[in-house]
Amino acid sequence: MKPIFLTQFLIEEQRKNDQCGADLRLLLEVVARACKRISLAVGKGALGGVLGDAGTGNIQGEAQKKLDVLSNDILLEANAWGGHLAGMASEEMDEPSIIPGEYPKGGYLLLFDPLDGSSNIDVNISVGTIFSVLRAPEGIDPADSKAYLQAGATQVAAGYAVYGPSTMLVLTVGTGVHAFTLDRELGSFVLTQSNLRIPEDTKEFSINASNARHWEAPVQRYVDECLKGKEGPRGKDFNMRWVASMVADVHRIISRGGVFMYPLDAKTQAQGGKLRLLYEANPMGYIVEQAGGAASTGRERILDIQPHKLHQRVPVIMGSKNEVERVVAYHREG
Ligand code: P6P
Fold first, then answer.
1. Is the ipTM of this complex over 0.95?
2. 6-16 and 22-44 helices, crossing angle to 10°
3. Ligand 1 in contact with 244 (CB < 6 A)?
4. Domain housing 329
């Protein structure tokens, strides 16, 4: 069968989807090219001279890996001259980055976590890039973080690249979720799965169990019932997975079902959660919902949250619809 490359897919999407115009298509192609460059750098491992810490920290208070900084720079440079963006915001930058004066500005904002899960890099575990596309609001300077404070439901596109045994690009422009695999010989992303759907039920949950003593009662109850297996109220055995790379964990869930949880707990209560809303929870939540799953904080739909700061953190429970709804029901019951 003739391969469908990302460009052809996006051109065909453009023809049938008013939300996916030429500018958005070109923006997504630029991001995809940047992800190819990141994949190349990540894939070199120790041979690329870019493992280890950069010796700097980000606004999150996290030590930056050399590849965090390199990935961020790759995305900034790739998107500076294209003319599709008014500005960019990143986990690795305190404030938004505006388009250099010598280049035209476009109508979109790009938000990204350039290398999610980077603490896994030095031990050769899958990492990824997460990105979200918003419309640039009229009358707000894209250098002002207020321009990016839009609810996740307003996203026009979202996607991630997962740098694993193969490099995959998974994206949505609002008409389902589609997966592309990087053909390294051609240097092109080839469509390998269309209209991904998350099974509504699962036997697999994903949570960092070392935080168990910090969890709120509803999460404790949900996990305890999973652990009781077929002898317990769920009547079936569960498996657990935790990669500690959101992209890898959520990609598994989009591929075969499951529920990913980084809930509010006593450790993260003060900062509102662990994962970032604008460039982790929102894009992944949009993709999960487009694949028939659900994405909640436990108390509200993630995509409904009105952000109040650029690096805002939120609790995250997303994946198989029936499991997320069960966790939400337990929160309602208290
Ligand atoms: P913990 C990676 O640092 C990340 O932001 C997500 O990708 C991942 O799901 C989570 O943090 C892992 O957190 O507390 O298990 O190390």
1. yes
2. 160
3. yes
4. 204-333
Domain check: are 176 and 81 in the same one? yes
Could you report the per-residue pLDDT of 201-234, keeping only the tens digit for each? 999 999 999 999 999 999 999 999 999 999 999 9
In the three-class reduction of DSSP (H, G, I as helix; E, B as strand; rest coil), residue 207 is classed as: coil
Q: Which of 132, 181, 122 is nearest to 157 (CA)?
A: 132
Q: Where are the beta strands (DSSP E) in the chain?
A: 53-57, 63-65, 85-90, 97-98, 108-116, 127-135, 157-163, 167-172, 178-183, 188-193, 204-206, 239-240, 259-262, 275-276, 294-296, 313-314, 316-319
> Could you identify the residue written with the tokens 């109040």?
308
- 143, 23: one domain: yes
Closest approach atom of ligand 1 to CA 210: 15
Low-confidence ranges of the chain (pLDDT < 50): none
**CA 180 to centroid of chain Cα atoms:** 16
What is the C-alpha to C-alpha distance for residues 232 and 199, in angstroms, rounded to an integer? 22
**Residue 250 and residue 147 share a domain:** no
Pick the residue whose CA is nearest to atom 15 on ligand 1.
244
> Does residue 211 share a domain with residue 187?
no
Residue 1 domain-assigned? no
Consult the annotation and say whether 208 binds a ligand: yes
205 forms beta bridges with 240, 259
95 marked as binding residue: no
Q: Calculate Rg over the CA atoms of the chain.
A: 19
Residue 187 sits in the same domain as residue 219: no
CA 29, 30, 35, 41 dihedral sign is: positive
For 94-109, the pLDDT digits (tens) are: 999 989 999 999 999 9
CB atoms within 10 A of CB 250: 32
* One domain for residues 239 and 122: no
- Of 55, 177, 75, 175, give the one whose Cα is nearest residue 116: 75
